[in-house]
Amino acid sequence: MTLDQRQADVLFTIVRCYIQSGQPVGSRTVSRKSSLNLSPASIRNIMADLAEDHYIEQPHTSAGRIPSTKGFRFYLDSKLDMEILPAEVEEKIKSALISTGPDLTQTLSQASKLLSSISNQISLVITPSQHNIRWKHIDFILLRPGLVMSILVMEGGIVQNKIITVDSEITVDDLVKFSNYLNEHYQGKTLLQVRANIFSQIKRARKRFNNLYQKALNLARESFEPDNNRQVYVDGTHYLFQDSEFTDLTKMREVFRLLEERSKLLKILDQTMESEGLSILLGQEQDWQELSDYTVISSPYSLKGDNIGLVSIIGPTRMNYSRVIPAVDLTARILSQLFNEIFEHNAEKNMPKA
Amino acid sequence: MTLDQRQADVLFTIVRCYIQSGQPVGSRTVSRKSSLNLSPASIRNIMADLAEDHYIEQPHTSAGRIPSTKGFRFYLDSKLDMEILPAEVEEKIKSALISTGPDLTQTLSQASKLLSSISNQISLVITPSQHNIRWKHIDFILLRPGLVMSILVMEGGIVQNKIITVDSEITVDDLVKFSNYLNEHYQGKTLLQVRANIFSQIKRARKRFNNLYQKALNLARESFEPDNNRQVYVDGTHYLFQDSEFTDLTKMREVFRLLEERSKLLKILDQTMESEGLSILLGQEQDWQELSDYTVISSPYSLKGDNIGLVSIIGPTRMNYSRVIPAVDLTARILSQLFNEIFEHNAEKNMPKA
DNA sequence: ATTAGCACTCTTTACCTAAGAGTGCTAACA
DNA sequence: TGTTAGCACTCTTAGGTAAAGAGTGCTAAT
What we know:
Two copies of one chain form a homodimer. Chain A is α+β, with helices and mostly antiparallel strands. The first copy, chain A, folds into three domains: about 5-80, Arc Repressor Mutant, subunit A (Orthogonal Bundle); about 85-130 and about 230-354, Beta-Lactamase (2-Layer Sandwich); about 135-225, Heat-inducible transcription repressor hrca homolog, domain 3 (Enolase-like, domain 1), CATH 3.30.390.60. In chain A, about 50% of the residues lie in helices and about 20% in strands. Chain A has helices at about 5-20, 25-35, 40-50, 70-80, 85-100, 105-120, 170-185, 190-210, 210-225, 250-260, 260-270, 320-354; strands at about 55, 65, 120-125, 135-145, 145-155, 160-165, 230-235, 280, 295-305, 305-315. In chain A, strands 7-3-10-9-8 form a five-stranded antiparallel beta sheet. Chain A has a three-stranded antiparallel beta sheet with strand order 4-5-6, with helices on one face. The N and C termini of chain A lie far apart (about 60 Å). The interface of A and B includes residues 144 and 256 of A. Chain A binds a DNA duplex through helix 3.
């Protein structure tokens, strides 16, 4: 079942030509473009084998062949001929991201813009899940009696606001006390740690402590709840119109619909969140009707070895992988680097205090 | 130059039919669809007049007529046959917006989603410019020496963060003093008022006050700077693919490109910001290459009579105005109402204190 | 003033044919 | 035995023509 050298060679040539032209590829073309010097007739024999094993398909009898999903998968898994991005591109991205200043929100938004422009595809950047990020400060503001806004500031200037309904007797002074307490006890811990700690305290508090303390804990619990509206930065949507002559408009429309349905989108992207390094999902391999002619390439970015966010692009199955894959990879790597630098920076600052 | 009753009648019928079908409209069709009972031949005479005055155009000799930009403008300015949205739709929107709770950011995002789904077009909602909104609270957080995050919370839970570089000698205690001072003196004022006041104080402070005070003022000045990244909520992009048989893909692509270029988009939309009530901009009347086949319908929402934000839709010039216009209008009205309710609510709370 | 009638124009559609691209098979070749 | 030239066959595409259809503009009659 596995392909020998020549079969693979032919398959790769077909994939490359198909990506370039969007048209079925004939034996003549393969014969000319491939490195093995064989006549079209010989190529045809090999192509017949490949077709039998479903690596390639024929739109109709007298047409050339196009790679099947299986064919694409084989091509992608062997990841040959990736372009090496010139060092200056790497430098350009890095400096563009650093220049966004200390606000990581800006950095991520900028990363998405850069990625779409160097890949010429739709780019997605998901903001970090905050489990593993340390927080610096919490603040409660009484919007009106019974209504509090909590503001949680984390490393790198990531902010999470939440509006929380509370007991209407809670006063501004109470809130100051709460926040002082929390800032003193939990500052510098990760959200995950804080949450765990708060839950255990709530259990104990049921019996031992006074009412005010319980209210504080409940307020804290709600504030530190995992953020369910993680943001997704989307850029370069107009690139989907490239080569739209060959594209089914209904399918294009589905992509746009998906991009707006953030929950569905996140469900798809989350699959790649835990994987190490880059992953490539072919729409047709998964059961996504929305992306049947499209491919998602993702790479997580990480903080201290934990994946916290994701960089991806969505493009047609026949996109230029050799350029796009390195771009996604690079962007994720640089983001990781930036996050870790900031983390290091702050860790030094925190250590002496602790 | 102005049209008489019959000419207008014929023009309206042509516009209506063209919107419905997307095809040139012939005299037969007009004769059947219009209320005046005239034969196709008579209609043709009237159509010849209209064509001479450039209200309608002919793609080629033997085709029907399509409304010109001038024709559309005439139709839109007389705004007949607007659908009356059933009261239950109004109720549905209202309750859906109220149910988003006290967080106005959520409310606006939801408004955009609702508008796109009832209009079947791309919807845009611009977050309020904060000049006329009162602020409740300011907070400074020392991210690291020399780097401060300011958090400005306004009426309705609108939050504006800004990261500001400062003198690296400023301490956490200084920041607490600053924020206490600002909160005491300026709470409840509008951003515009605060800014004016701060500027005048800075001038005086140059001579009279100590260094710390000047630093505080400078920090305040930067925090209260008008927010240059006003958000735009965009929804329903996939509706652009409706009737895409008749649509030029290059032009569609330009729309998507424009939607991502927020500064350009805002420049276009800001034109309508100051107008009273609904405005309709035909892409071809303006000098926007990006929107040559599209129309922007906008209506500002207001707080205490001042326009603070904008609700719009972007759709093809031949969209169903009779449905879309009331939808935009209604959404803006409901938003104004909600904002004013919240304002009233808070005003009552603020009054006794002041 | 309105309309029926009609010739005219231009587009659209269908149909046909020829060209072209590519295949698969066979037989010959190294 | 692997490779290749040759060839018949299939299916799509492009081009051209003719018929159909839609709509106009004009004229003459009502």
